[in-house]
Write a structure and sequence with these properties.
By secondary structure, the chain is an alpha/beta fold. The chain is built from twelve helices and nine strands. It has two domains: 206 residues, Vaccinia Virus protein VP39 (Rossmann fold, 3-Layer(aba) Sandwich); 67 residues, rRNA adenine dimethylase, C-terminal domain (Helicase, Ruva Protein, domain 3, Orthogonal Bundle), CATH 1.10.8. The longest helix is centred in the C-terminal third of the chain and has 13 residues. It binds S-adenosylmethionine.
């Protein structure tokens, strides 16, 4: 069992370095001994696969990943954690810690520099304040990675993994399903962390697809349509698309009719193919030119 799941040891090492938890940086550190080995085992890493971890904290997951992978690159924003990590990761010589913001860092460049053409996966217990933008960034940049395994809030996990066309789906479900095949791996109780967050979490794995499941005539328009559709999820598609895309309602109804979709339908009923059909009509009819 890792020393880093011994609450007294972790608290001791953090206080030795004068570290106090920052809520703003989403700092809830894992102390449940079964979670990190399980994440490392299920994230698709082997000795030939490199790993990028976002937010190593005190290094509890980093250590488990380094036992399996030939190289782990961990990106940590909080520089107060660098001396902590230097101490807690000292048993491994295959870990590189980079002090940077995962939202801003050039990830494609980092992968090329650190891993060349080798296989790479991402594995992280994400800071919850940037869950969606960070996942979207990792997917949209079409990075040369095969899977993203992340711990997120349970509610976010349910939304991300929900199949488009079902009640639980949202804009993020459609976006995630465009790039990947999401899978809910296991749940993690709030008591598994110090400090304990208010809600439970879950670990999800996104297996990156080589090709999207539908053909979007224009990806930018596809994502505009998805976003606009869910902006006011209780409203009809006709209303949300009209306000979300700044198009007159009559024009939106014309688009929906051409795509064979009822104007009274709601975003949560839309399949990926129907979002692609709306995109094709808008693209071929030039409805969004100049917008
Ligand atoms: N991996 C550790 C664990 O499981 O115990 C810590 C996870 S904690 C939920 C999130 C970590 O992400 C913290 O260490 C925090 O400082 C770091 N972090 C927050 N925002 C970040 C960002 N924009 N880029 C990189 N790291 C970030």
């Amino acid at each position: 069992m890792s020393k880093l799941t011994d609450i007294n040891y972790v608290k001791g090492i953090l206080s030795k370095h004068g570290f106090t938890f920052s809520k703003a940086l989403g700092q809830n550190f894992l102390v449940n001994p079964s979670v990190c080995p399980k994440m490392a085992e299920l994230c698709g890493v082997d000795e030939h696969t490199g790993v990028i971890e976002i937010g190593p904290g005190a290094g509890v997951l980093t250590n488990e990943l380094a036992k399996i992978s030939h190289k782990v690159v961990a990106i940590e924003l909080d520089k107060r954690l660098l001396p902590v990590l230097q101490e807690t990761l000292s048993e491994h010589d295959n870990i590189k810690v980079i002090n940077d913001d995962a939202m801003k860092l050039d990830l494609a460049g980092l992968i090329k520099d650190e891993f060349g053409d080798g296989e790479v996966v991402i594995c992280a217990n994400l800071p919850y304040y940037i869950t969606s933008p960070l996942i979207m960034r990792l997917l949209e940049e079409k990075l040369p990675i095969s899977a993203i395994t992340v711990m997120v809030q349970k509610e976010a996990a349910d939304r991300i993994c929900a199949e488009p066309g079902t009640r639980a789906s949202g804009a993020i479900s459609a976006a995630v399903h465009y790039y990947s095949e999401p899978q809910l791996l296991f749940k993690v109780s709030a008591g598994s962390f110090i400090p304990a967050p208010k809600v439970d979490s879950a670990v999800i794995r996104l297996n990156i697809l080589k090709e999207p499941p539908v053909t979007a005539a224009d990806e930018k328009i596809f994502f505009k349509v998805v976003k606009a559709s869910f902006l006011q999820r209780r409203k009809t598609l006709s209303n949300s698309l009209s306000s979300g895309l700044s198009l007159p309602k009559q024009q939106v109804n014309e688009i929906l009719a051409k795509a064979n979709i009822k104007p009274t339908a709601r975003a949560e009923e839309m399949t990926m193919q129907q979002f692609a059909d709306i995109t094709s009509v808008i693209f071929s009819g030039n409805y969004l030119s100049g917008k």
